[in-house]
Structures are given as structure tokens and as C-alpha cells.
Amino acid sequence: MKTVILAGGLGSRLSEETTIRPKPLVEVGQMPILWHIMNIYAAFGEKEFIVALGYRGDLIKDFFERFHKLSSDLTFRFDSGQTVVHSTSKTLDWTVHLVDTGSKTMTGGRLMRLVDWLKDDSFMLTYGDGVANVDIAELKAFHKRHGKLATVTAARPPARFGSMSIEGDRVEKFAEKHHADEGWINAGFFVLEPKVLDFIDSEDTIWERGPMERLAEAGQLMAYRHSGFWQPMDTLREKEYLNDLWASGQAPWKVWR
Q: What is the C-alpha to C-alpha distance for residues 50 and 48, in angstroms, rounded to an integer?
């Protein structure tokens, strides 16, 4: 099953980083968060990716070209100017399609531009800025069992700040970095049937508005509840949090070996 990763947005809320590179290339543990996301899927045998490029997509292309060479053995033929890339045991067996979907295209529009890639088979979709320890195999099985057009992974929203219970001026209870006790939000990690593309009107369509709303109204959108770890990287604080987890050696989303 192909996995689409939306990697074309401006990432304006993380402007400290995204003025010079697209958000999927912002690093967690010296590797782009995009690499972390792809490893999550690859750990479950899902190794064909379509990366929907937009803002500074050239830098994402440069990264994969360099990464491929750096993870392989090379032969330089100086007389002919030829570079030969040799596969090694270190080389990943991924197939990565890098597709330009426009610098200002909305999320639904990016899917519309990929219609020729996606029209024949079920596919997965996620955002290029969030990691989780989602069981991809169980997610796919859940989608197959219910038989509807779309599955969205639902997660508890991570609290951005600690919470306090105050009586008068005295703090009675303080809790740092807990998950909200109520409510579920869109965490990405979708499984979709090609017919969902019919719900997208134009390149200006935002996937999370019209299409998802109409799929829900039609009874075709199901929620896979994920109670484990999920964390987006929308702010500098969240980037630092993810880096701290990685440095600790206890990153919950590292499901690969």
C-alpha cells in the first residue's frame, strides 16, 4: 500500500526553523522528522512513499539524493566523471516518489494532484510533521474490517502546558505535560480508498474541511482510536520536546530496529 506524506506547507508556526527549510526537514536527533515518520511505516513493511512537495520541495529532493549516496558505497570514475552507487547492507529498501504538488496548494488539492498515483488502490496518508507509535498493521486491519471509504487515527491532544488546580491563591495540584482527559483529535495516519478523491472539489480544497466533513456526513469516515503516544511538531517548544525524548533513548515513536 502506498503511503502519502503531506510535506508542502509553509510551517509558519515554526518560523524559527521554516524560514530556511520546509518543516518535514526540521531535525529530531540530527535526522529530519520526515525520516522518522517514514521509519514508522517501514517498520510495518510499508516502504513505498509518495511525498507531496510544495514549499522548498527542492531541499527535500536534495536530502534524499544525498541520503541515498551517503548510505551507499560509491565509485568515482574520474576519467569519465561517472559516479556509481552500489547497494549495500546499509541501503534502505524504500521506494520514494517525490512529487511537486504546488507551493500554495491546499491539503486536499495535493491529493487531487496525486490522483494518477492513487486512483487504483487503497492508500495511506499522514502529515509530515507528527510522530506516533501507531500500530500500522492494526490500523490497516481496522480499515479493512469496517469497509468504509476512510479511516482517521484519533488521538488525545497533548497538553501544551502544565495544568494547575488553584484554591484561593494556593496551588493545590500541579500536573505537567499530561494528555487531555477528554476529546479526540485528528492525528493523521489515515487509510483511504480511491473514491475519497471524488470528495475533493479543487486544488483550493482543504482536506480537513469539506472532504472529511462530507465523508462523516455520508457515514464513510471511521475513527481508529490511538491511546498511545502522538506528538505533532508545530512549535519550537514541541521540537525541543521531541529532541529531548530522542536524546533520552526512550523515544516512544521509535518502533523500528
A: 7
